[in-house]
Amino acid sequence: MLGEENAASCGAHLEEREMAVDVHALSGVDLPRLVVALKGSDSVELKATVPDDSVRSAVAALGMDALDAQLRQVFFFETADLALQAAGVVVRARRVKGRGDDSVVKLRPVLPDDLPKELRLSPDFVVEVDAMRGGFVCSGSYKQRLAKPLVRPVTLGDVPIRKLFSKRQRAFFAEHAPTNIFLDDLLIMGPVFVLKLPFVAKEYSRKVVAEMWLYPDGTRLLELSTKCAPANAFDVMAQMIAYLDQRGVTRDQDPQTKTKTALQYFATSLADANR
Questions:
Q1: Residue-wise pLDDT tens digits, 129-188
Q2: pLDDT digits over 205-235, tens only?
Q3: Pick the CATH number of 16-273 from 3.20.20.70, 3.40.50.2300, 2.40.320.10, 3.30.1490.180
């Protein structure tokens, strides 16, 4: 954590930065904590979600073509009462059209300085800050691309869940998951179909990623994001906000998160089915 002298320095730096950033976009954000998280992270992803009734106009304003999107299937692995979510653990696997399968075990929130040095040195472990209107979260993710397609066999019950994860991912899960919760005992929650479309935005000259999450009940969530180095986060945030406003894209006042929305949907559906 920052000492008093460093904290004061960061505070002064932030006061200068805040003048260049849309203060409404940062309302509710603990700026000193954000600076500490940025300092220790590998990358930053700046996100905005679009209200459902504004999705069509946003797609038109940004010139996106759904036929250019990459199709994905996302599965989560959880307990019926979302015990992993309560512990800050996310377990996920994906099928990606044209690229293959991948898996991740994620812990959030994390304090970058509290993570073991050997963990930070692993090429498969990434510390990233997700920032959006009203808040941010710093997460540590153990990722891997699978050498062969295993997600579908797992979801069909032909292969145990643990086979989706490397030994290091399993150890990371065991260290942070609640006691007596094991990978092979988790429920399969999914799929959620996702359309992912990266594009270079006009008048912005940065790559923006649009993800449309299509939930089984017909609801949808459109998220727009861009990644940058931690040192550039405030400048890029200001540019992204200005770009979306210029294009007339309405942003959620209370942003939704893709994972939380998915888990709550599947947990509710499971509870309703068991009544």
A1: 999 887 899 999 999 999 999 999 999 999 999 999 999 999 999 999 999 999 999 999
A2: 889 999 999 999 999 999 999 999 999 998 9
A3: 2.40.320.10
Q: At what angle do helices 4-18 and 31-40 cross, to 10 degrees?
A: 110
What is the separation of C-alpha 183 from the centre of its chain, rounded to a whole number of angstroms?
21
Q: In terms of pTM, does the model score above 0.70?
A: yes
Nearest to 212 by CA among 102, 62, 85: 62
Q: Are 106 and 65 in contact (CB under 8 A)?
A: no
Nearest residue to 210 via CA among 198, 227, 219: 198
Q: Which two tokens stand for residue 50?
A: 């679009």
Cα-only R_g, the chain = 19
Q: Are 170 and 139 in contact (CB under 8 A)?
A: no
